[in-house]
Design goal:
The protein starts with a helix and ends with a helix. The protein is built from four helices and no strands. The chain is mostly helical. The protein has one domain.
Length: 94
């Protein structure tokens, strides 16, 4: 994915954030533009890391951090430590 392809994704993520904020799925105080940039940047970063010679543990740690930030956006942030780890393992399996 290059920056040209990130444009439509960024628009879609912004729209999704605005809808989620409006419906109360995420906190009302989030900066939609900042969160959207973070989400799209995280996808781009994950792609770069996945193609690198970095160890799989690094990719897992990266995704744990991203999921932790996204969890914190919820109106009632949860602490799903163990379940989150399982999701990361599924996403990271190469």
């Amino acid at each position: 994915m290059n920056w040209i392809h990130a444009g439509p994704s960024l628009t879609a993520v912004r729209r999704a954030c605005m809808n989620a904020r409006r419906t109360g799925e995420i906190r009302a105080d989030i900066d939609v533009e900042q969160v959207s940039d973070y989400v799209v940047g995280s996808v781009l970063g994950r792609r770069a890391l996945a193609r690198s010679p970095a160890p799989i543990s690094m990719l897992r740690h990266y995704l744990e951090g991203v999921l932790g930030v996204l969890d914190g956006l919820r109106r009632h942030a949860s602490t799903r430590g163990g379940r989150r780890s399982g999701k990361v393992h599924q996403v990271v399996s190469r």
